[in-house]
Amino acid sequence: MSAMLVFVLRLLVVLSAYAFIGWIGYVIFSDFKRQITVDKKQSTVPPIKLEAVFNQVITQKGFEKQEIIIGRDPACDFPLNDETISLRHCKLAYYHKQWWAEDLDSTNGTLLNGIPLSTPTVITEGDELQFGRAQIKIAFH
Amino acid sequence: MRSRLSKLSKSKQKGEIQQRLLLITAFIVVAYALVLTLAPSIRIRSSSGPFQFDHWLGVAGWGVSFYLLHRQAKKYLPKLDPFLLPIVAFLSGIGLMTIWRLYPNLGFKQTIWLIISTVVVLAGMRYPIFLETLHKYKYVWLISGLLLTALTIFIGINPNSDNGPTLWLQFLGIHFQPSELLKLLLIVFLAAYFTDRITIVQGRFESLLPTLVLTAAALLILFFQRDLGTASILLLIYLGILFTTRRSRLILIIAPLLMIASGIAGYFFLDVVRLRISTWLSPFSDPSGASYQVIQSMIAIAEGGLIGAGPGLGSPNLIPVSVSDFIFSAIAEELGFIGTTVPIALMIFLIYRGIKLANKTSNAFHRFLTLGIIFYFGVQSILIIGGNIGLLPLTGVTLPFVSYGGSSLLISFIAVLMLMTISHTAGTSENRATIVRRRPRDLISGGVMMSMLMLEVIVTSLLAFWFSPDLINRTENPRWIIDDRFVPRGDILDRDNQVIITNTGAPGSYQRASNHIPLYTVIGYTNSVYGQTGLEASMYPYLRGNIGYPYLTHLWQDLLYNQPPPGLDIRLTIDLEMQQTADSLLGENMGSIIVMNASSGEILAIASHPYFNAETLEAEWDVLSTDERAPLLNRATQGLYPAGAALFPFLTASQEDTLEQYPDPESLLTNLNLSTCAIRPEATSLTWEVLIKNGCLAAQNDFAQEIEAESLSALLQNLGFFSEPQINLNVAQVSDPDKTGNNVDQLREGAFSISPLQLSLAASALTHRGLVPNPRIVNAYRNPQNEWVTISDSQTTTQAFSPQGATLLTNLLKERDLPIWQVTAVTNADEENPITWFMAGTTTNWQAQPISIVVVLEADAPELAEQIGRALFQATFLSQD
């Protein structure tokens, strides 16, 4: 009789241990799912067009990626060759369904519509960024 | 206002998740404890006890601790990760119960340590600022940790053994292992260091120098103290943190190189490392020595199977250091594969939550600290579980939260306190504007650890299922000895159902008791150290109930009791009265007797002297095993003696025509050296009868010249002298026939030897129509329905010579006073070890069952042998009349 009781208890231990794991597993699974949908949303980055006015020369370039680095370094996504611009000067990133501009500790700083950029800030159509002597106009399609 | 409300409810929700998970855990721990209480009574299948209650002290300590932790966490850290505390509660609950189950005194100590750890964590929850203090004085903390560890070199002690490594410090009667603390302090230091330096000199080697120097110092101390497990963990944690904090790719090359280099260095300079690595590579080469621990651990996992023996119902105590290094295997044996997946899964979750937290937190120090702690838990679990299942070389480290060890438990609790504090801070932090960086290296390192743990689940399942039968049946698995104490083995009865051997004692301490001690050479002994012999070994499946029960009974007994069903009785062909007569006749003489039913091959009596008493085997083992007279040997089946002139009747029986052609032996044989006879006959009246009966070797050899070489070897073959008799007893390895020489060479002493059993089978052929029977000693078993079932043997008998030849010989050799024929022979008469053979059988006048008897004496004593043999016949005839 007590052997049966013990057997049932053992089964209960196993079942509840698995309920325990299952619960945590479920939470992690739904975490993953959420993460994946977030990733999906983030992966559909709206195209952005940058129009740089620099030494009276207008350069235009469109992007469809999540992160754009602007700087003097030719390896940057949008290179601008001028000594007033740092190697890696500024970053534009799409996050939380919005485009953000972030200054990468540049020497001369970044101005957004004339105001120095200190924290990551949301940018919209028609905004103007200024790096040293260069100016960039933001346009979405 | 709305967002504030939702946040409030979110933290409330977290508290509820934590509470529910903790309740499930509490239920599991209580159910486990309840099983443990009932287990002792189930093992002996009694419903009225004994019961075990000590461990409820542990349950109480555990329950109060986690209730308080839960309450305080809700109060002071409402936004903490709700999974951390339940995971820790589960791991430490199962660990604590397993420790109580293995060694109650250690369970008590561990409960005290759990309470101490809880108090420390409760205090820490009130002052989350302690993290900043750790950060600020990083050098002070690490250096004091190093000094404490270094102190063990001078005043360290080992509480467990006198000559083990001295890794502990004693303070107010409490033993503490500073190297555990050192692990955490190094993590704190590295996290703080990289937080402070990361922005200044990115990717420069010089910036690593302080961490290299301090880590190397820690490693040196640990190497010096032979604490290699902790040293390897420190090294892995260091490499892990470097990997996740630095952007340089150099670490990807340096880390594996460094690990391989230290492994090779260890292999060549440290014996321990060499031993561990060689046992890891070939665990089955030295199962009783170097790899004893690992093999016992694997066997325990295999014994556990799917759902395990049940708490308190297995034998995990058989694993060495089951309470700390091998607690994983101990859990595997009693909770099964299912039970082991739980701690591994929880560790995977812990790593996952940690990586997530590291990704979420905005504070660099917190991030590095979280990663370091995750490495600490992950690496340690991977190493020790891998060591337990033979996947990795064994490192003597603890399984976090589960293993016995106060220092380890305390430090693990403090580490979790840090995680809880960090997760609370990360949850409160409002600074969400920072763009969250993707950190692939965190994910990679977490993923590597999680996949290692999953690999370990797979390997565990292989041990528990695929390799399980092989492992369980290994000779190193002593669990059947324990089953023998709890489950009655079958009795062994004689042919009239008189008990020869049975069980005495109560369940839990069953022992064998014999009614006829001299039969132990046949029955055999059962001993945990020396193994099993004789019928106990060969009839194991019946006596242990492995055969005869339906599959469901086995399954049910295994599930409910983790024991085989009661053993089945077996009935032998032995006649206990005749056996007693044989033993008393043989007395103090060294030798052996076999009485056999000549037509069926059933052994009626089988004696071998000197003998032993299995009940006092352990005490007398040294004397018995070194005794030159070999009392442990069953001479009747395992003794090999030169046959000498005992073959004469068989040679003549196969050549009946020659015998009829030459009624006078002197007309055929030229060399009749009568001094080679066992009993010297009168030279005047030489007949075939006299020469054969008295074992005249010269005459036999002369006669053998007359036989064709091929028919001689065929005769010896058919008599079964070159094949082992098929019987449920250990038999001697027989020699191969020597076919190169002539007939005399074939028969010469030393060319081949035979056991008394073989000769008795040949004698049966002479008695019974030239047919060599198959020997039988086990007749039947009693099935669970209490019916006797004959154990059949399907072998056929062999015709050694013609029935006419047999009749001719038995008539020739017939005695005047008894209905028998008889032959006496002595071999090695002039040498050191003379052997006397006496062989006899009933003649055709005998109307009842034909009987053959063989007596062997390890002395030159033909008269004594004859006397014993004839007395046995008289007893036989009396009993058969």
If you had to describe this structure to a student in words, what would you say it looks like?
The complex is a heterodimer of chains A (141) and B (881). With 141 residues, chain A is an alpha+beta fold. Chain A is built from 1 helix and 11 strands. In chain A, the strands form 2 sheets. Chain A has a 6-stranded antiparallel beta sheet with strand order 2-1-11-10-7-8, with no helix packed on it. In chain A, strand 10 and strand 11 form a beta hairpin. Chain A starts with a helix and ends with a strand. The mean pLDDT of chain A is 83. Chain B is an alpha+beta fold. Chain B is elongated, with a radius of gyration of 38 Å. In chain B, a hairpin with a 6-residue loop joins strand 4 and strand 5. The chains are: A alpha+beta (141), B alpha+beta (881).
Describe, in short, the structure shown.
Chain A has 141 residues and is an alpha+beta fold. In chain A, 30% of the residues lie in helices and 37% in strands. Chain B has a six-stranded mixed sheet with strand order 5-4-3-8-14-15, with no helix packed on it. Chain B has a five-stranded antiparallel sheet with strand order 10-9-19-18-17, sandwiched between helices. In chain B, strands 1-2 form a two-stranded antiparallel ribbon.
Compile the SSE list and pairings:
The complex is a heterodimer of chains A (141) and B (881).
Chain A: H1 2-43, E1 48-54, E2 57-63, E3 67-71, E4 78-79, E5 90-95, E6 98-103, E7 110-112, E8 115-116, E9 121-123, E10 128-131, E11 134-140
Parallel strand pairs in A: 3-4
Antiparallel strand pairs in A: 1-2, 1-11, 3-5, 5-6, 6-9, 7-8, 7-10, 10-11
Chain B: H1 2-43, H2 56-76, H3 84-102, H4 104-126, H5 130-136, H6 138-155, E1 169-171, E2 174-176, H7 178-197, H8 209-224, H9 228-245, H10 250-269, H11 271-281, H12 292-304, H13 327-360, H14 364-388, H15 406-428, H16 440-466, H17 468-472, H18 479-486, E3 492-493, E4 499-504, E5 511-514, H19 520-523, E6 526-527, E7 531-532, H20 534-538, H21 540-543, H22 551-561, E8 570-572, H23 576-586, E9 591-597, E10 603-609, H24 617-626, H25 635-638, E11 641-642, H26 648-654, H27 656-661, H28 688-693, H29 697-704, H30 709-718, H31 743-747, E12 753-754, H32 756-767, E13 771-772, E14 778-782, E15 788-790, E16 798-799, H33 803-812, E17 820-827, E18 835-842, E19 851-857, H34 862-880
Parallel strand pairs in B: 3-8
Antiparallel strand pairs in B: 1-2, 3-4, 4-5, 6-7, 8-14, 9-10, 9-19, 11-12, 13-16, 14-15, 17-18, 18-19
